[in-house]
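Thread: "does anyone have the structure for this chain?"

Original post by V.I.:
We have the sequence but no experimental structure in hand. Need at least a predicted one for the grant figures.
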Amino acid sequence: MNDYEKLSEVFRQIADARKHFEKELYVLLVLFEMFKIGKDSKILDAACGTGDVARLVHDRGYHKVFLSDGAKSMLSMVDKAEKWYEDIAEKRWEEIGDLFPRWGKFDFVYFLGNSVAHSPLSVLEEVFGSVYEGLNGGGVLVFDVRRWKKSSDGGLVDGGREPGIWRLLQKVYYDNEKYLLFDKVSYKGGEQRVEYIFFPESSSCNSFCETLSYHIFSWEDAVDVLEKVGFPSDSIKVLEIQEWPYLVVTARKM
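Reply from O.Q.:
Generated one for you, tokens below.
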């Protein structure tokens, strides 16, 4: 897992610029329709981050929304001025099984935004197994995976991202100071590391960075894990959804 200690401060700025929250909501509404998830269904955003997407889901009339995430700094950004959610918990994914005895079983559990790549497949097997046990019959697990491309050495890389090249993302405000936010990638040992560099506009500030790591695996590998923990192969689907940059994987408990 990654802590997002610095990126949590600018996460909404990045998401707003890319309309990320609205696009993720669109993905969820498509899936709700596809799997007949009603307004009274019990929903868990298991990688809720700042909680903005779950709030949009709630505002669409799905009021039985629960939130969890392993990054304390992201959870601290959740709007708690009014208790619009059912409950919230800081849980690393290895601990997600602890939530179901406390909250009961769910109809829909989702991890979106390439979140599952923060953990290796060995951990995801435990996580998906816990979610399988925590779903009602007919319940749905949803996550997404990056569209990795084969490299010249036979490994998987992020298409179009060459190691070591700084990419300008946007301008952001951090502690009331303006920064240019760049990222650059590297690959090592089956992981992609993304270094986010905050480059100050003011000479009175220093640059700083934060690095996130993503485990590299294909959607086929993820499907194998789903089948291993009990999801029937004919209940698993891999979807492309308009304007969403990742492949969406769904599995239904029969």
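V.I.: this helps a lot. DSSP finds seven helices and 13 strands in the chain.
O.Q.: and The two ends are 30 Å apart (CA to CA).
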